[in-house]
Please model this.
Amino acid sequence: MNQERFARIQRLLAMRQPDLTVCLEQVNKPHNLAAMIRTCDAVGIHDVHAVWPEEMRMNNYASKGSHYWVRLNRHETITEAVDTLRGQGMQILATHLSPQAVDFREIDYTRPTAILFGAEKRGISQQALALADRHIIIPMVGMAQSLNVSVASALILYEAQRQRQLAGLYQSSHSRLPESEQQRLLFERGYPVLTRMCRQKQLPYPTIDAQGELQADESWWQQMQLSRSAWQAMENEHDEEESDD
Ligand code: SAM
Model:
C-alpha cells in the first residue's frame, strides 16, 4: 500500500475508541443503520453491537464505505448483548424518556460506555430498560415526541466525542485496539485485492510491518499462486489508477 494510505489508516487506528460503543435494538431500516455506522466511524467507534434475530441489511451506499471500518457484532437477544458489554466494563445507557431519565449531557462519556438505541416504531424494549444503568434523553420541546434514531445517535455520540476530546482520548499516537485487529484492518483495507484472494483460498493474512509492507514468506506467495514481482506490478498499476481519480 502506498505510504499516504498507510499513514491515514494508522491515524484512524490511533483515534479508535474501543471503550465507546452503541447497541442497536432491532433498528431495522437499512438507511438508519447505515447512517449510524457512518457516525460511529466518524467519532472513532470501532465495534457496533446490534440485536437482530434475522440477517442484517444495510444500505452500503448510505454508509459511504464506513461499514468497512466499523465491526458489526450481532446478538440474538438484548440480554446477550448487555452481558457482553458489561463483561467489557461498560456503563449501559438506554435512550428513553422515562421518569428517571436524565439529560444526555449530564453523563460522563469518558468512562467505558455503551449506549442502547431502540427500534424506529417501538423504541427500546422493557427488558433493555431494566438492564440499563441509566436512562438518558435528548430534551424535546416541539410537537414530535422523538427524533429519528440516527439523528439521536449523532447528537449523543458527538457529546461523547466532545468530552473525550477534552480528556485527551484522541491524542494517543498508538492505537488502543488489539494488535490482531489493527493487523486485520491494515491488510483488508490496505490490500483489498490480496484480501479477496486470501479469502477465496482460505489462507491466513500475512503480517504488515511498521512501514506498511507485507511480511510474507515464499510459501505464502506460492499458495497464493502469485509471485511477489507480479503482485508489485499489479499494485503499482492500482496506485496509478487511484491517482487518476
Ligand atoms: N415510539 C418510539 C418510543 O416510544 O420510544 C419512538 C422511537 S424513536 C423514533 C427511535 C429511537 O431513537 C429511540 O428508541 C431512542 O433510542 C432514540 N431517540 C429518539 N428520540 C430520542 C430522544 N429525544 N432522546 C433519546 N433518544 C431518542
